[in-house]
Amino acid sequence: MILTYLVVVVIGLFAGYFIRKYIAEAKIASAEVAARRIQEEAERAAEARIREATLEAKEECHRIRADLDREIRDRRFELQRMERRLVQKEEQLDRKVEALEKKEEAINRKNQELDRLKEEIEALHKKQREELERLSGLTSEEARALLLKDIENEVRHEAAVMIKEIEASAKEEADKRAREIISLAIQRSAVEQVSEATVSVVNLPNDEMKGRIIGREGRNIRTLETLTGIDVIIDDTPEAVILSGFDPVRREVARIALERLISDGRIHPARIEEMVERAQKEVEAMIKEEGERAAAEVGVVGLHPELIKLLGRLKFRTSYGQNVLVHSKEVAYLAGAMAAELGTDVMLAKRAGLLHDIGKAIDHEVEGPHVQIGAELARRYKESPEVIHAICAHHGDEEARSIEAVLVQASDAISAARPGARRETLDAYIKRLEKLEKIADSFDSVEKAYAIQAGREVRIMVKPEKIDDLGTFRLARDIAKKIEEDLEYPGQIKVTIIRETRAVDWAK
Q: What is the pTM for the complete model shown?
């Protein structure tokens, strides 16, 4: 049974083996057939692809070749076109060269003709010149000199006429503008003028006070004069004592001290000394206060304290009856107003105007003109060179080199010259007019000169046979210049030249 079972198992195994082998061989054969079929299909597909690629490559080759052929044709056509243009240009150049050669030949012929004509003209000109010289009796050099002289005279006459017109126009415009600026400056400055002298009058309650002022054996009056340096004049003037002296500060000290003594009633040397000392302190404080007030009113800042004191001293200083401090403030106002109109440095003009007469504060103590003293004071107290220059130039001691210096000059003249500003003695006035006429009479062509309008104008009659109309303008300028050099005067002087020619004949 077991054996049978084993036999059956072995048979089954052999049977399974052979079945499997048969099946595997069948599958292998089938797979080989499929593989061959796939290989054949792949080969056919590859051949088809190769044929397609070959066809595409041939088509692309044909296309590229066609493009190249077309480009070659285009290039060849372009080359041919350019070659034709070059040929045309070459032909044009040849024609132009030929035309230029013809023109050159024509120009050469014309030059030769011009040379021939030039020679003929020169020969004709020479012949004409010789004929003109023979007829006129003058050589060409003499004729040229005569012609040039005539032309020179004509040009000089025309230049003089032109100068006259230009000067008249410029003067008219300048006068108009100057009048506007000066009138505006004067309108803005309304400063009162007070006429003062070198004496002060002290009123007394009664004439008995004169004896008390004199004192026993004159000791009171001597003490007062010694301490103040002022002369006390007691005369027949009722109820008044006169204080005389050129130092205005000392005179003011004496006035205050004497008024205090009269008010107090106790007049003796010790009391006089005490009152004089108090008056000196009071005047010093007043001087400082007046200087500060003047600088503040004008608007000038940064002045040295000593300059402030010197400005205050000007309150007690007069010039031709005009208070110098009031005059200085007015000059500062005028200069500042005109500087504002002209667009220059207003503060510099005001500062220079306020300080222009600072030398008058101590000119009775220091020798020299007040201009020089003022410039030295300005240098000592570190004022700017522009201010110092304006001080030096305001009376013409130096030529004005800045607009501010010119404005200070003009403002000083305006303040001093306008009516009521200053007093002038009759003798000095007459002498000034006589000197003005004498300066005009010193010129040869002047027949008679007349000073009119209080010396503001000089009218001059000239000899018509010695000077022409154009010469009168030069004469007016020369006389004005000589007046400026030789004469001192406030403001300006107008010079008028009058030339008259009369032709008289009788009809019979």
A: 0.48
